[in-house]
């Protein structure tokens, strides 16, 4: 069985090591000198809360941008469909034109001259 005093010293040494590592991860500001364990843990908790808040805001912004992207994608698809429809109307109109259509245009032009 291990000596309780040795286990206790080992545990305290490991806690000190973990606290030193935590100091390296938590922004301590100007008072980066000596911190109590309680003040370091309090700063760590506040830092974690700040990071969680930033994450929530970032996720909210991602959701908003995804909604906007879907909306713009639908608009783009509508415009594409509209363009296809307009192109098909334009091509069917141009293919329907013939020499007789041009002759009729000339007759309309003559009729308008007569009405002057």
Number of DSSP-assigned strands: 0
Tell me the β content. Answer: under 5%
Number of helices: 3
Strand count, sense and barrel status of the largest sheet are: none
Radius of gyration: 39 Å
How far is it from the N-terminal to the C-terminal residue, by CA? 122 Å
Taking pLDDT < 50 over at least 5 consecutive residues as the criterion, the unreliable ranges are none
C-alpha geometry? rod-shaped
Secondary-structure element string: HHH
* Structure classification: mainly alpha
Mean pLDDT: 81
Could you estimate the helical fraction of the residues in percent? over 70%
Keywords: Coiled coil, DNA-binding, Nucleus, Transcription, Transcription regulation
InterPro entries: bHLH_dom, HLH_DNA-bd_sf
Biased composition (Basic and acidic residues): 96-105
Subcellular location: Nucleus
Task: Name some characteristics of this structure.
single chain; mainly alpha; 3 helices; rod-shaped; protein dimerization activity
């Amino acid at each position: 069985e291990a000596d309780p005093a040795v286990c206790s010293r080992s545990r305290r040494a490991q806690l000190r090591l973990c606290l030193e590592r935590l100091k390296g991860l938590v922004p301590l500001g100007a008072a980066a000198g000596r911190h109590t364990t309680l003040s370091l843990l309090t700063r760590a908790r506040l830092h974690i809360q700040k990071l969680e808040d930033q994450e929530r805001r970032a996720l909210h912004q991602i959701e908003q941008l995804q909604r906007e992207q879907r909306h713009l994608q639908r608009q783009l698809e509508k415009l594409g469909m509209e363009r296809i429809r307009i192109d098909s109307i334009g091509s069917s109109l141009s293919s329907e034109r013939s020499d007789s259509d041009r002759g009729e245009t000339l007759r309309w032009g003559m009729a308008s001259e007569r009405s002057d």
